[in-house]
């Protein structure tokens, strides 16, 4: 891992087409701006982890979950 110290307004270049700019620094947080091509995914780690956990929880739902949901919503029972 590369660890850098940057001041507000300074930039970090990644490859030829990704630029990270330090926008603001307040207390224990730093605001950054990221310029990258549209095809490059930029995601916050905590959001990705939450989605993975939610998907795992949904996959572990009981076998009769669909029938119970339909019954709760007043829909027809599956055949």
TrEMBL record:
Keywords: Bacterial flagellum biogenesis, Cytoplasm, Repressor, RNA-binding, Translation regulation. One of its GO terms (molecular function) is mRNA 5'-UTR binding. Coiled coil: none annotated. A translational regulator that binds mRNA to regulate translation initiation and/or mRNA stability. Usually binds in the 5'-UTR at or near the Shine-Dalgarno sequence preventing ribosome-binding, thus repressing translation. Its main target seems to be the major flagellin gene, while its function is anatagonized by FliW. Belongs to the CsrA/RsmA family. NCBIfam families: csrA, PRK01712.1. This is Translational regulator CsrA.
């Amino acid at each position: 891992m590369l660890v850098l110290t940057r001041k507000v307004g300074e930039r970090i270049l990644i490859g030829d087409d990704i630029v990270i700019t330090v926008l603001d620094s307040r207390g224990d947080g730093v605001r950054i701006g990221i310029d990258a091509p549209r095809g490059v995914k930029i995601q916050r780690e905590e959001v990705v982890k939450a989605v993975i956990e939610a998907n795992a929880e949904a996959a572990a739902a009981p076998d009769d979950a669909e029938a119970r949901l339909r019954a709760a919503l007043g829909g027809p029972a599956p055949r």
